[in-house]
UniProtKB/TrEMBL annotation:
Residues 4-159 form the Metallo-beta-lactamase domain. The lineage of its organism: Eukaryota, Metazoa, Chordata, Craniata, Vertebrata. This is Metallo-beta-lactamase domain-containing protein 1. InterPro entries: MBLAC1, Metallo-B-lactamas, RibonucZ/Hydroxyglut_hydro. Homodimer. It comes from Alosa alosa. Belongs to the metallo-beta-lactamase superfamily. Glyoxalase II family. Endoribonuclease that catalyzes the hydrolysis of histone-coding pre-mRNA 3'-end. Involved in histone pre-mRNA processing during the S-phase of the cell cycle, which is required for entering/progressing through S-phase. Cleaves histone pre-mRNA at a major and a minor cleavage site after the 5'-ACCCA-3' and the 5'-ACCCACA-3' sequence, respectively, and located downstream of the stem-loop. May require the presence of the HDE element located at the histone pre-RNA 3'-end to avoid non-specific cleavage. It catalyses: a ribonucleotidyl-ribonucleotide-RNA + H2O = a 3'-end ribonucleotide-RNA + a 5'-end 5'-phospho-ribonucleoside-RNA + H(+). Gene3D superfamilies: Ribonuclease Z/Hydroxyacylglutathione hydrolase-like (3.60.15.10). One of its GO terms (cellular component) is cytosol. It is found in: Cytoplasm, Cytosol. Pfam families: Lactamase_B.
Length: 171
């Protein structure tokens, strides 16, 4: 199987890479060139999460619930709450709340378990006092945060280092 190489929120740091301007040095540090990236995910449309899409003219581009390749918009049911499967291990899942069209990337079977690249569903590990003020729909976001904490072993938030989810096995 050919693994999909994803750039999240134009974005990773391992799974998040920010490309500012047309400086691709941060990408190249990983040994990859823009041509090597076949899927780019902007978890939502805020300008600090999307940019430089033109560096990836042949990639599948996901921005929120919109999925396109070249000039073609691909049908999907993200806005109706359904995941978009990339392969057996990777899927785009709808996680609205912060905006109405937020998505996250769910990666199964990694060496650290299930990883969720969550965009601004989580601002950072300790965002309990801050995320609601940044949310278009805190009620919906709260539900999606709970689901994420039940699903993922590791969460990569929008604005902080990855964190491990500690689940109490008694509840
Ligand atoms: Zn945002």
């Amino acid at each position: 199987m050919k693994a999909s190489r994803l750039s999240f929120s134009l974005g990773f740091q391992h799974a998040r890479l920010l490309i500012r301007g047309h400086n691709t040095a941060q990408l190249e540090k990983t040994g990859l060139k823009p041509d090597d990236i076949n899927i780019v995910v902007g978890t939502h449309g805020h300008s600090d999460h999307v940019g430089n899409l033109g560096l990836f003219p042949d990639a599948l581009i996901v921005v929120g619930c919109d999925i396109s390749q070249g000039d073609l918009y691909l049908p999907n049911e993200l806005a109706d709450g359904q995941p978009y499967l990339i392969d057996d291990h990777v899927s785009i899942v709808p996680t609205p709340g912060h905006t109405g069209r937020d998505v996250s990337v769910l990666v199964k079977d990694t060496s650290v378990g299930v990883v969720l690249v969550a965009g601004d569903l989580f601002e950072c590990c300790d965002d309990e006092d801050s995320w609601r003020a940044l949310s278009e729909n805190p009620e919906v976001q709260e539900i999606n945060r709970k689901v994420a904490l039940q699903t993922a072993d590791v969460i990569i938030p929008g604005h902080g280092p990855r964190f491990k989810v500690h689940r109490d096995s008694t509840n």
